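User: Hey, quick favor. My workstation is busy. Could you predict this chain's structure for me?
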Amino acid sequence: MWLEVDEIYNLACPAAPGHYQYNPIKTMKTSVMGAINVLGMAKRCNAKVLQASTSEVYGDPDVHPQTESYRGNVNPIGTRACYDEGKRAAETLFFDYHRMNHVNIRVVRIFNTYGPRMHPFDGRVVSNFIRQALDGEDITIFGDGSQTRSFCYRDDLVEAIIRMMNGPDEFVGPVNIGNPDEFTIRELAELVIELTGARCSLIDRPLPADDPKQRQPDITLARKHLGWEPKIKLREGLAKTIEWFRSIDASEYRAPTPNY
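Assistant: No problem, here it is.
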């Protein structure tokens, strides 16, 4: 039985390091084989197809902020490569299907995103910090906390993705989708402590291999072609996220070891 569709959003891939590194081969397969499958369907159905790529295609950047023309600094044999290179390969497939088969593609490069309904144990920095603070635990920081990230609230991200899919066919991307406001990880931890009212300390742990030192999107193209920029500031978005975390029983979200 054939499935007939008009639009495809390909967001399938574990994104937290602990999850995608659990089975790196299957992570790579998800990105590469998944892209081949959705592109084949888009070609057959004459459908638009959007690829959720990632800021990790830039690796540990030596260009700051990151523009879409920057080709990245990725270690192809490191422990993060299954995700970084998998997403880069998926972008290659999307653009080759576009050039060779005239598939109507869209490619967005998503920077750190957060918000209510995050899994408390997904291993991302925002969920980790909030859960630790609310549980009265010390907050674990990898490295000295000087590395930077830019955090985009989920509603802003969804708005950008929909605008990209509904935008003109001439603009296929890639386009950075993220909040250009840059924060150190230590600043994030201190803000979480302030907003939760927690009494906890910051504990430093060794920085994982190939962990990016800086991450900040240049969103010039998103502003120009999508008329989009994020509206929710980090303090407001964190408050909404913390409120949701307070409303749940995090123990109910404990999941078995990923199996993919």
